[in-house]
TrEMBL record:
Key words of the record: Methyltransferase, Transferase, Ubiquinone
Membrane among keywords: no
UniProt-listed InterPro entries: Methyltransf_25, SAM-dependent_MTases_sf
TM annotation in the entry: none
Pfam families cross-referenced by the UniProt entry: Methyltransf_25 (PF13649)
Domain of life according to the entry: Bacteria
Official protein name in the record: Ubiquinone/menaquinone biosynthesis C-methylase UbiE
Annotated Methyltransferase domain residues: 55-154
Entry coiled-coil feature ranges: none
Length: 248
């Protein structure tokens, strides 16, 4: 069974489990607002005059990140991409503006994906809980490709867990997973194997230093990272980066 299949098996319970995660929605909204600020879009702008930013939501899952992006950028034209048909099914049954669409596919398919909406250069790319699911070599290849797909001056935001730099973070992460998340997955009828994978993949994920290095190596500038609040401190990280402007 592939990872996409595992997400599909748990898709109907995914939103419930994230709702039970204290601070999950808040951190996702904060990250979306970071991207909005980076591309110069504010929620309080006049919607009739503000330009409509083009945003890719990679690994959009059931649409929770898409909803956060629309809250931060109500006029945005968003393309959500995910490799799990079940997660996209959950996203599509929700109510969305006509400027939002969801596509089936993995990030490795971006260079050849036939959808016309993916031919336009986005102003921003949002990737929440995506890169740790890619093999290390694929992370570099994907970042290098994204650096060419963004418009010059466009922004990339990556939002994900990593605990390799802190003993406290590793302990807290293991306690949360084994005492709360994995037992809850069984109670609500999700696949506990997916959440055991979650625990393991986070422990094996890049350190913040390594991932920042990958961003720089891919050609991004203004690379920065901040950590989350509450129990997410030192565990959840938000990276921001900018594609350089074209030389004049």
């Amino acid at each position: 069974m592939t990872l996409s299949d595992a997400f599909t098996r748990s898709a109907r319970r995914y939103d419930l489990l994230t709702w039970l995660n204290p601070g999950y929605g808040r951190e996702l909204r904060d990250a979306a607002e970071d991207l909005a600020a980076g591309i110069g879009h504010r929620e309080e702008q006049d919607h009739d005059q503000a330009p409509s930013p083009r945003i890719w939501d990679l690994g959009c899952g059931s649409g929770l990140s898409t909803r956060a992006l629309l809250r931060a950028m109500p006029t945005a034209c968003i393309v959500g991409l995910d490799s799990s048909a079940g997660m996209l099914e959950q996203a599509r049954i929700k109510s969305w503006p006509s400027t939002t669409q969801f596509l089936l596919g993995g990030v490795e398919e971006l260079p050849t994906h036939p959808e016309p909406a993916l031919e336009e250069q986005p102003d921003g790319i949002f990737a929440a809980y995506l890169f740790r699911n890619l093999p290390p070599a694929a992370r570099d290849a994907t970042l290098a490709h994204l650096s060419t797909r963004l418009r010059p001056g466009g922004r990339l935001l990556v939002h994900d867990y990593s605990v390799s730099e802190s003993l406290r973070a590793r302990i807290v992460w293991s306690l949360v997973c084994w005492l709360i998340v994995i037992p809850l997955s069984r109670i609500v009828g999700a696949d506990p194997g997916l959440y055991r994978y979650l625990w393991r993949s986070v422990r094996e994920n890049d350190s913040t230093v390594r991932f920042r290095g990958r961003l720089v190596e891919a050609g991004f500038e203004e690379v920065a990272v901040r950590t989350g609040r509450g129990w997410h401190r030192g565990i959840l990280h938000t990276y921001t980066a900018r594609r350089p402007e074209e030389p004049t």
